[in-house]
Design brief:
Blueprint lengths: L5 E2 L2 H13 L4 E6 L5 H11 L4 E6 L19 H7 L6 E3 L3 H4 L19 H4 L3 H16 L3 E5 L3 H14 L4 E5 L19 H6 L1 H17 L2 H14 L3 E9 L13 E9 L2 E8 L1
Parallel strand pairs: 1-4, 2-3, 2-5, 3-4, 5-6
Antiparallel strand pairs: 7-8, 8-9
Bound molecules: pantoate (PAF).
Pantoate binds next to strand 2 and helix 6.
Length: about 280
């Protein structure tokens, strides 16, 4: 199979996209940081259902990592990623840091409101500013008709939706379902940091979310279900950042049990931080 062409420069990207546009083709963007796994490939296949052309961006975005996070050790597997995309994507956009952040760069996009209050933001206070900024840049560069984001990063998805609505990007955001391994662990590029034992234990995260969701549906006791879930995770030696229930659309605290609820969790196993979420 022929390998997917790569554009590193903006001029290259624009030339490809404008050729497609002239031919009346729709364009989808799947933003990634590389280290691609089946979960990403599922998003790329989903993108293909919505557009004739699919661009996958691969860029490990420095501004969304905090000073003590894993930016330096984040897996960079470009050639493998590129071969996984053969036959699935039309173009890989792999810009250099200086392309995304020109010298003297001083502009950020900050999303406020309930979507960025708490959860990840309590533990990674500059994370969503970095994500919103890089995604806004990618949207302006690629100018896609649709963009696909995985539900695994549920808060990120809601932050992007808020940004798209507020800045009136003419782009449809398509959520991609979380792909899981057989034991329920959400696929993530960071799963490769887990030791063998931790990898087995990691399945408890999704089991706990499912128990919480069931209990909430059966008892309507949101706090009780979450307390029980936190106890299970602590007993299994997870270091919990949060296990919370939020309004599924706004991410505001739950006040109305008839509205859709999302349960979100972040917990550490050893040095690996895992996140997951589920509808209640
Ligand atoms: O979800 C990710 O991989 C990243 O946060 C994204 C959306 C590609 C922005 O860097």
């Amino acid at each position: 199979m022929t390998s997917t062409p790569v554009a590193e420069a903006l001029a290259d990207l624009r030339q490809n996209v404008s050729g497609w546009r002239k031919a009346g083709e729709r364009v989808a963007l799947v933003p990634t940081m590389g280290a691609l796994h089946e979960g990403h490939l599922g998003l790329v296949r989903l993108a293909r259902q919505h557009a004739e052309r699919v661009v996958v961006s691969i860029f490990v975005n420095p501004t969304q990592f905090g000073p003590n996070e894993d930016f330096a050790k984040y897996p960079r597997t470009f050639e493998e990623d590129r071969s996984k995309l053969a036959g699935l994507a039309d173009l890989v956009f792999a810009p250099a840091v200086e392309t995304m952040y020109p010298p003297g760069d001083a502009t950020f996009v900050t999303v406020a409101g309930p979507a960025t209050v708490g959860l990840e933001d309590s533990f990674r206070p500059t994370h969503f500013r970095g994500v919103a900024t890089v995604v806004a840049k990618l949207f302006l560069q690629v100018q896609p008709d649709v963009a696909v984001f995985g539900e695994k990063d549920y808060q990120q998805l809601q932050v992007i939706r808020r940004m798209v609505a507020d800045l009136q990007f003419p782009i449809t955001i398509i959520p991609g379902p979380t792909l899981r391994t057989e034991d329920g662990l959400a696929m993530s590029s960071r799963n490769r940091y887990l030791s063998e034992d931790e990898r087995e234990q990691a399945a408890i995260i999704n089991q706990t979310l499912r128990q919480c969701a069931e209990e909430i549906r059966e008892t309507n006791d949101v706090e009780g279900a979450l307390e029980a879930g936190r106890a299970v995770l602590s007993k299994a030696e997870f270091d919990i950042d949060y296990l919370e229930a939020r309004d599924a659309e706004t991410l505001a605290p739950v006040t109305d049990l008839s509205a859709k609820i999302r349960i979100l969790v972040a917990a550490r196993l050893g040095t690996t931080r895992l996140i997951d979420n589920i509808e209640a």
